[in-house]
TrEMBL record:
Taxon lineage: Eukaryota, Metazoa, Spiralia, Lophotrochozoa, Annelida
Entry-linked SUPFAM superfamilies: Cadherin-like (SSF49313)
Stated name of the protein: Cadherin domain-containing protein
Gene3D superfamilies, per database record: Cadherins
Recorded GO CC terms: plasma membrane
UniProt keyword Calcium, yes or no: yes
Compartment(s): Membrane
Chief location: membrane
UniProt domain Cadherin: residue ranges: 15-79, 124-226
Originating organism: Paralvinella palmiformis
GO molecular function, one term: calcium ion binding
GO biological process, one term: homophilic cell adhesion via plasma membrane adhesion molecules
A Pfam family: Cadherin
Keywords: Calcium, Glycoprotein, Membrane, Repeat, Transmembrane, Transmembrane helix
CDD domains reported for this sequence: Cadherin_repeat
Length: 230
C-alpha cells in the first residue's frame, strides 16, 4: 500500500484510520476507536477501508470491516412489562423504588379503625340522651344508631348489640334502631343507662362501646290515694 491514500467509508464519529509509513515503504493501517460504543444504540458497524494508489489510471482496493459491538452489563435491569403491581400492607413505609417504571401499589387494608357510633334521638335532649313517655306501646322509637367503620371488607363490617331487658336493638338497613320492649312505668324506674356495643369482623376485631341515657317522662296515671288513719 505504499503511496496509497486510504480512507474510511462511511465517515463515523466512532472510528478513524491511522496510517504509519513503515521503513519498507508500506503503510500500517490501524482502526482507531474515537468514541464510546453503545451496543444498545448500534450493535454493528459495516465500514470500508478504501485504498487508492497514485497511478494513472488509479487502482483501488477495498477492505470490508465489520465491527460487532459486544455487550457489557451497563444497563439497569429491564422490565419486561409496562407496569408492575405489587401488594403491600398499609401503614408500612415504602422504600424508594430504584428504577423507572410505573408501579401500581395496592394497599391491603389493616383493621385499624374501630366502628364509630353515632346516636340520634328525638327532641333536644342531646345525642346520648333520650326521653320517652311512660306507658307508651312496646316498640316505641328511642334512638337510631348510625355506625361507620372506615376499614374495608370484613374489617369494615360491623354489628351492634344491646343488653337491657326493657329495650331492643334491631338492624335497620345499615343502621340500627333502639325501641322499647314492653310498657315502661316511671313510678317503678325513671332512668335507664343503655350500653351499646359495636364490633367489626376483622380477624382482630375492634369494638367500641357507648352509652345512652333514657329518661322516662311522667304522665299522670295514678289516682290520689286516701289513707284513713284510725
Ligand atoms: Ca384500615
Ligand atoms: Ca374496622
Ligand atoms: Ca306509671
Ligand atoms: Ca305517672
Amino acid at each position: 500500500m505504499s503511496g496509497d491514500k486510504i480512507s474510511l467509508q462511511p465517515n463515523t464519529e466512532q472510528f478513524e484510520l491511522k496510517t504509519n509509513l513503515q521503513p519498507d515503504g508500506s503503510q500500517e493501517v490501524r482502526l482507531i476507536l474515537r468514541g464510546a460504543l453503545d451496543r444498545e444504540s448500534v450493535s454493528q458497524y459495516r465500514l470500508q477501508a478504501i485504498a487508492v494508489d497514485g497511478g494513472d489510471p488509479e487502482e483501488y482496493g477495498i477492505l470490508e470491516i465489520i465491527i460487532i459491538v459486544a455487550d457489557a452489563n451497563d444497563n439497569h435491569p429491564v422490565f419486561d412489562q409496562d407496569t408492575y403491581e405489587v401488594t403491600i400492607e398499609e401503614n408500612v413505609p415504602i422504600d424508594p423504588i430504584p428504577t423507572e417504571t410505573l408501579v401500581i401499589i395496592h394497599v391491603d387494608d389493616v383493621n385499624d379503625n374501630a366502628p364509630e357510633i353515632m346516636i340520634h334521638t328525638l327532641g333536644d335532649s342531646g345525642d346520648n340522651e333520650a326521653v320517652i313517655l311512660e306507658n307508651t306501646v312496646s316498640g316505641t322509637f328511642v334512638a337510631r344508631i348510625v355506625v361507620n367503620d372506615r376499614d374495608s371488607d370484613d374489617n369494615g363490617r360491623y354489628n351492634c348489640s344491646l343488653y337491657e331487658d326493657h329495650f331492643v336493638l334491631d338492624p335497620f338497613g345499615s343502621d340500627f334502631l333502639i325501641t322499647t320492649r314492653g310498657i315502661l312505668d316511671r313510678e317503678k324506674r325513671s332512668k335507664f343507662s343503655l350500653i351499646i356495643k359495636c364490633h367489626d369482623y376483622g380477624k382482630q376485631a375492634l369494638t367500641r362501646t357507648t352509652f345512652l341515657q333514657v329518661s322516662i317522662e311522667d304522665i299522670n296515671d295514678n289516682c290520689p290515694h286516701f289513707f284513713i288513719l284510725i
